[in-house]
C-alpha cells in the first residue's frame, strides 16, 4: 500500500479496546480511529480520532468512513444479548438490525471509501448456538446457518456477506472467538457477562449443583489472545494474503470441563462448594421450563438464571480445533487459561 496504514475499529466495547492496545503495542506507527454510536469522552481524550455514528444507518456509516478514510477496517461493532435474552426470541429484530444490517452497511461503506482489507469479529456461536448438536473439536469445514439462538443466528447471516465481499479490491476474513473472558482495557470495558455470572452463583448458593456429568468440554478465550488474532489477520492480509476469504476459530486451545472452569473461578474468590449435588440433565431441563414460565408470568425474565437454554449450554460439548488458525495466521495463545482466569478475577465482583 502506498499511503500510510490507517485502521478504523467499529465499536468501542470489550474486544475493541484490547485490539487497540495490541495494535498500538505492535504497530505504533499505524494510524488508528474508532467508530461507535455512543458518545465517549474517554476515547476522545485518548487522542484517537473518534467518529460517532449509527452502524444501522447507511448514510451515517458512509459519512464516518469518508471522514476516517481507513485502509483497513476491523468490524467489532455488534450486540450480544444478555443472560435472559440469549435464549429468547424477543430481541431478534434488534440483534439482526445491528449484527446483520450493520455489517452490510460497514461493508458497503468500506467499498465506497476504498478500504483494502476488512476483518470481521464473528463468533464461535455461528456454529455452537445450534443447541441440537454437540460440537467436539469442530473446525471451519462445518456448515453454518443452523444456529437456533439469536446471537449465533445473526452472526451466521452476517459472516457470509463478509466472506463473499472478498476480492481483488478488498480482502476480507472473519475471526470466530470462543467465549471470551478478561479485564477491561485502557479505554474499553471488561467482561460483564461470563465471570460476573459465575461469581454471582456464590451469593445465590448455587455452586454445589452439578447439571449432568459436569465433564463436557468447553472452549474459552482470554481477551488479549482474541486481540492478537485480529492483529495477525491484518498482518496476513497485508502480506501473504492466505487468510483472504477465510474464517478462523480462535480459542485458548485448552478445552476444559465446564464444571472445572467454574470451580477455577470460584477458587479465585476463596470459595469451594461445601458439598456437591448432581442433577440429571432431564430433570434440570424440566426445572428450566418451569423457571421460564415463572419468569414470564412475573415479568422478571432478565433476572432468570435457569432456563432450558442455559441447561443445554452448561451441558453441551463445544470446543474447536485450532489447526487452521495456527497454520495460516500463526496464532498461538500468549496467555494461558489459568492465568487468564486469575487476571479476569482480579477486578473483583463484590
From TrEMBL:
One GO MF term attached to the UniProt entry: oxidoreductase activity, acting on the CH-OH group of donors, NAD or NADP as acceptor
BP GO annotations: steroid biosynthetic process
Entries under Pfam families matching the protein: 3Beta_HSD
Database matches in InterPro entries: 3Beta_OHSteriod_DH/Estase, Lipid_A_modif_metabolic_enz, NAD(P)-bd_dom_sf
PANTHER family documented for this protein: BIFUNCTIONAL POLYMYXIN RESISTANCE PROTEIN ARNA, SHORT CHAIN DEHYDROGENASE_REDUCTASE FAMILY 42E, MEMBER 2
Similarity field: Belongs to the 3-beta-HSD family.
Name of the protein described by the UniProt record: NAD(P)-binding protein
Classification lineage: Eukaryota, Fungi, Dikarya, Ascomycota, Pezizomycotina
